[in-house]
Amino acid sequence: MTLELFAVFLGSSIRLATPLLLAGIGEMVSERAGVLNMSIEGMMLMSAFAAAVGAWGTGDPLIGLLIGIVSVVPVALLQACLSNTLRANQIVSGIGINILVLGATTLAYREIFGARSRAEIPGLAKVKPPLLGDIPTFGPAVFEQVWLLYAGVALIIITALTLRYTSIGLAIHAAGAEPKAADKSGLSVTRIRYGCVVFAGFMASLAGAFLSIGDIHTFTEGMTRGAGYLAIASVIFGKWRIGGTTIACLLFGTATALQFQLPALGVVLPNALLIMLPYLLALLAVSGLVGRQFAPATLGEPYRR
Amino acid sequence: MEAVSPRPAEAVAEPLLALSEVTKRFGNFAALSDVSLDLRPGEVHCILGENGAGKSTLCNLIFGVHRPDGGGMRYQGAPFLPAGPADALRQGIAMVHQHFSLVGDMSVVDNVLLGRERGILDRKGCARQLAKIADQYGLPLDPFAKIEDLSVGERQRVEIVKCLIRDPRLFVLDEPTAVLLPAEISALLDVCRRVAAEGRAVVLVTHKLAEIKQVADRVTVLRGGRTVATSSEPSKDIDALVRAMIQGNVEALDTSAASILGLELVAHVDHEPAAKAGIEALQIDGLTVKDSQGVTRLDNFTLTVDRGEIVGVAGVEGNGQSELTAVLAGMMASTGGRIHLGSTDLTGRSPKEITAAGVGIVPEDRHAVGCVPGMSLAENIYLNRLDEFTRFGFLNRTALEREATTLMQRFDVRARGPGALFSSLSGGNQQKAVLAREITLPNLSCLIAAQPTRGLDVGAVAAVYGHVREACSRGIAVLLVSSEIDELLTVADRIVVLYRGRIMGSCPADPARKDAIGAMMAGQPL
């Protein structure tokens, strides 16, 4: 592998890992508070679609991004309401939402774009960070990325610090591990969990927008293709920790990038097998390597006083 | 309501919290009816009552977990109706709950800070505050230890410190001594006194009379959700208080029941040694259990129980008792050692084979293991022998219910009838039914009972031990696992103490050895 090829591989790994990372960190926060948010896939797809429509309609990708974020709020509130207030089964309700969003976005896409499915959609700008961007070969290939990627990294660092050093972090931990203790300390478990699901929705909306207007500047039906489930797998693989989840997302991103890299290297493998690779990896990671004891104690259980 | 002793002329302080004719209903069931109570600064006020008397409900009303359906509360002279625990905490009421509410995988400091501080956490500052409180009240703690690494007594201390750090005016403790070692109990009562001496009001909920004698300024007795007695000189009125609590005659109390209350009239009663004593029935040899993490839960446990003998297994919960009983019941695999019943090897046998061999099991968790709450009482009583009522694959319900009725009478199981849903029975009746099933096994030669009286009221406790003794006098070997030393001292012949999965030592069940047993429970060898 030449240096150039390696730099491109590295850059595309990071780019492909970004939506997983954004969604994965949001999912991790939600799960730490005790809500298994299966609708992350639907949230991403919703935002990918709404951001694409917004950017296409207004001509401004930034407005598109905002519309993407706003579009996920009702989905997140629905998920939060089902899993907290109505105490529905979180896996069933999440999958229901995913199917609903897939149907709704597909229908709306055909209605709005129809014949114009090749329409060019304005996308988010790339930035060239100072110093890092000037490195020969690696600068342009690795570090010249959409600004949302850097914003995402900043958000993840802020999330990590918040979980570790603030009262919000303690409250989230307690809500997932021992909600009774949180309740008796005068905290509202319901409010914490609503907040965390909405945060997961916000992160998923960034991930979805990154897919459509950040990465490929177009929308296709069901374009998330299980990225939300990969994000959930990366939380399990990362043992509900920020560092672990990040590594898992980068791993899955790299596996996805291999799809494009292996043919370029002349390795002949059936295309379907390559597409399967990240999902296969996720399956292995989730089934083999991880024990349950790392999960928040009340993950998936609605709280009842 | 019977005022046991006249209140001293009101030279007393203004009440901090006054409840007047408070009522709380859950559906049709009145948990509290017309309860009046006042709590004054600087006093330790004990609430005495049996399980189900409404003590916890009362605490939950004060702490804002529930709202009263009738009557009113006044706090510091103003009407008081907390919107929730957060509101009560803000107004200076702190509570130590019956069940710990700590987050196991967080540190002591983080548990103390939870819900108390906003924004960025000052863990070091909090640790300093903890050290100060530790000095002030004698509650030493490592602020950065994880809760799951602490002993039960230490966790209790965390709960107390969590409250005291808020500087409460009213401090409520709901049955805080149920899980503690004797030495820890007196330390806790000492803390109560110090807290009250600072001018705070302390409410101590208990069903142990010894604690009341030691610490109470005033006592209110609840029975069936009503105030049935009050006293401002509890140590003088103790007999009257007990009578009010259990609505009966103290002298007629079964000794084991009295011991649970902490009455000192108790002396160990030797039951007649059964004719077959001296014949080994249950032999446990080097039993060892390692859990999936490789931690040794039960370490080389060796014990022989003779026929007609009751051997008590004492120890603080979580020291291997659950593993011991689960292995003996065939519900858990041992990693070493052997179990024999007479000449039959029971090691690694299934629960069905163990039952068939004549071992009756009263499991620790009667809800999860001992019964099927959604089935009828009759079905539960004969759960392990339903085959006997089956003909051509069909269950003969008439015969089943007829037989069950006989057993219900014999064991005084009170229910609407044999067809009543098991979950509709009270805890005491459920336990009696489970006991009836196990004790009437046709070829019973050994009974293993784990915490058989937990959560039962005094009458039910007496009944349970009556049946256990009766079984023993028929020559049954009994292994009794309990965390209540007083109970073991009165019922058992011999006591072994479990500590971290090992037998710390054994001694005859002599009340004079209570301190020694307490020390062994805390990990000090004899």
Summarize the structure.
With 305 residues, chain A is mostly helical.
Notes on the protein architecture:
The complex is a heterodimer of chains A (305) and B (526). With 305 residues, chain A is an all-alpha fold. Chain A is built from twelve helices and two strands; from the N terminus they run ααααβαβααααααα. Chain A has a two-stranded antiparallel ribbon with strand order 1-2. In chain A, 50% of the residues are buried. Chain B is an alpha/beta fold. Chain B folds into four domains: 1-92 and 169-176 and 193-252, Rossmann fold, CATH 3.40.50; 101-167, no CATH class; 254-358 and 446-526, Rossmann fold (3-Layer(aba) Sandwich), CATH 3.40.50.300; 371-440, no CATH class. In chain B, 32% of the residues lie in helices and 25% in strands. In chain B, the strands form five sheets. A seven-stranded mixed β-sheet of chain B has the order 1-11-10-4-9-8-7, sandwiched between helices. A six-stranded mixed β-sheet of chain B has the order 17-20-21-14-22-23, sandwiched between helices. In chain B, strands 3-2-5-6 form a four-stranded antiparallel β-sheet, with helices on one face. In chain B, strand 2 and strand 3 form a beta hairpin. In chain B, helix 9 (255-261) crosses helix 16 (458-473) and helix 15 packs parallel to helix 16. The interface between A and B is medium-sized, with 20 and 27 residues.
